[in-house]
Amino acid sequence: MKGLRLGYDHDDYKGRNVVERGFNDTKQWRGLATRYDKLALTYRGGAASSVRSPSGCVGWTVCHDEWMNSSGADPALVPELLVRDTLKSIQFWCGLCGFEIDYQRPEEGFAYVSLGSAHIMLEQRGVGRNWITAPLEPPLGRGINFQISVPTVDPILTSLRDANYPLFMPPETKWYRIGDLDEAGVTQFLVTDPDGYLVRFQASLGHRPIVH
User: Which of 2, 70, 113, 163 is deepest in the core (most CB within 10 A)?
Assistant: First the structure.
């Protein structure tokens, strides 16, 4: 109606700039603004990060970029997994879990994939030069699990569930003692790759003092 004056909270209104700057930050990341990302998983990860600022960073865009660029230096440890079918493994690691192919040698059944600072080599059994110390029996990688840190586990969980891919352990929140006074919290879940290698994706919840 003409002349109608709408009430508003003066203190709340002063925070309007926070919302506006949040949208501006979102539009500055071309992955969300232009759908530049090739994988729906990566796009969902960016959207999820927009409401969950990991590692206490100021601004989710900065955090996401820092995490994705954290692989700038060559990692000191890169596991090489001997697999039955490299293409099937790539579908799991890249198609479902958000890794990207850095390079590959199809004639050797080899692919080098990464997600942030997590790097993994995949080599197809019987194609390239395999180093085998004992007979290979499924599930492979017995006695080991690969812990992979991500800003949030939600987009990977969604991708796996959409594909009806089974989890080895459902999501949980867990706090681990890391000293006499502090403990570190994570949200995590476990899943096996097509060859049975156990993978643990986890997102940090930060540290807190131990309450006795």
Answer: 113
Contacts 24+ apart (CB under 8 A), 125-131: 125/82, 125/83, 125/84, 127/86, 130/82
DSSP secondary structure string, 169-191?
EEEEEEEEE-SSSEEEEEEEEEE
**What's the Cα-to-Cα distance from 91 to each of 56, 122, 151, 182, 199, rounded to whole Å?**
32, 12, 21, 39, 15
E strand spans, 88-197: 100-105, 110-115, 118-124, 145-149, 169-177, 182-192
Q: List, in order, residues 6 or more apart from 208 with CB less than 8 Å away.
A: 175, 182, 183, 185
Give me 121's structure tokens.
Answer: 């080599």
- Prediction pTM value: 0.66
Bridge partners of residue 191, in order along the sequence: 199
Query: Which residues does 139 contact at the CB level (< 8 Å), separation at least 6?
Result: 192, 195, 196, 197, 198
What six digits make up the tokens of 58? 């100021």
pLDDT tens for residues 88-142?
999 999 999 999 999 999 999 999 999 999 999 999 998 878 888 888 899 999 9
Cα separation, 202 vs 200, whole angstroms? 6
